[in-house]
Specification:
Family: Belongs to the transposase mutator family.
CATH topology of one domain: Nucleotidyltransferase, domain 5
CATH architecture of one domain: 2-Layer Sandwich
Organism: Pararhodospirillum photometricum DSM 122
Helix content: 40-55%
Strand order of the largest sheet: 3-2-1-4-5
Protein name: Mutator family transposase
Pfam family, one: Transposase_mut
Structural class: alpha/beta
Largest sheet: 5 strands, mixed
Radius of gyration: 21 Å
Strand content: 5-15%
Keywords: DNA recombination, DNA-binding, Transposable element, Transposition
Number of strands: 7
Distance between the termini: 58 Å
Number of helices: 14
Shape: globular
Length: 291
């Protein structure tokens, strides 16, 4: 981890130096937490958890991370919390804290995440009006894991036919074709897909320009990829605090490269309540605007 933050040529650091760096990072983390985001509004949020490599593995703890998209299309780190990825209670604690302190005072229009997260139960309790979008990247992997390797390449293409469909009707038809094609021999794979039919297709109710951002948790997965790539096992055990601060620093470094959402001009429309059907602003909304 230290080499990722200090460079490949970082010297062997003594415990005292590591303690000093940890104190500096702790100060940065505390300043970030106190940063006033009460005036912020996040239209979309992406949620996931990154497991830590070190002592914390033993208790299956991980970093719960929430990234949000502002009305201007910028992505920002909204929430960061030590918890258990599948635990609804851990996610509830994070969401309640964010809401109470004004960092997420208004419900997002849509949340994107892996279907296995306890995040969804917590969202239903804390932000019941937010729509749910399951990540197609995770869902594809889950479905393929329930089928023989020999059919996985073809099955993967058929799954892509669903989420790449131009509208909801075509996607629904593609799901039915998938079920007819694989349901008899691979019922568990088909059930895995059909169970989340509604949240897998939620993105069709949002601007088409945003679909590339909403169908997967890529905005947050790209951050975790950097964390996982740069995080190496250490001979010495890391304390939960040190591990948390190191991952926080890596995420903040990755945040500098985040790109704005495409079609940011559509975001204010969502906030004002404009409805979209198959990615296009509804005719009713267009007529009201013209009037």
């Amino acid at each position: 981890m230290l080499s990722a933050l200090l460079g490949k040529e970082a010297p062997c650091l003594s415990p005292s130096v590591i303690s000093r760096l940890t104190a500096e990072w702790s100060g940065e983390y505390e300043r970030w937490q106190k940063h006033d985001l009460s005036a912020r509004r996040y239209v979309y949020v992406w949620a996931d958890g990154v497991s830590l490599q070190a002592r914390m593995e033993e208790s299956a703890e991980c970093m719960l991370v929430l990234i949000g998209a502002t009305p201007e299309g910028r992505k920002e780190l909204v929430g960061f919390h030590i918890g258990v990825r599948e635990s609804a209670q851990s996610w509830r604690e994070l969401l309640v804290d964010l809401k109470a302190h004004g960092r997420l005072a208004i419900a997002p229009e849509l949340a994107v995440g892996d279907g296995a997260l306890g995040f969804w139960k917590a969202m239903e309790e804390v932000f019941p009006s937010t729509c749910h979008q399951r990540c197609w990247l995770h869902k594809t992997g889950n479905v393929l894991n329930k089928a023989a390797k020999s059919v996985q390449p073809g099955m993967k293409k058929d799954l892509a036919e669903i989420w790449m469909s131009p509208d909801r009707a075509a996607a629904e038809k593609a799901i039915n074709v998938f079920a007819a094609k694989y349901g008899t021999k691979y019922p568990k794979a088909t059930e895995c897909l059909e169970t989340d039919r509604i949240p897998l297709l939620a993105f069709y109710d949002f601007p088409a320009e945003h679909w590339v951002h909403l169908r997967t948790t890529n905005p947050i997965e790209s951050v975790f990829a950097a964390v996982r790539h740069r995080t190496v096992r250490t001979k010495g055990a890391l304390s939960p605090k040190t591990a948390k601060l190191m991952v926080f620093k890596l995420i903040m470094a990755a945040a500098k490269t985040w790109r704005r959402l495409k079609g940011e001009n559509q975001l204010p429309k969502l906030i004002s309540g404009v409805k979209f059907i198959d990615g296009v602003q509804s005719a009713e909304a267009v007529s009201q605007t013209a009037a």
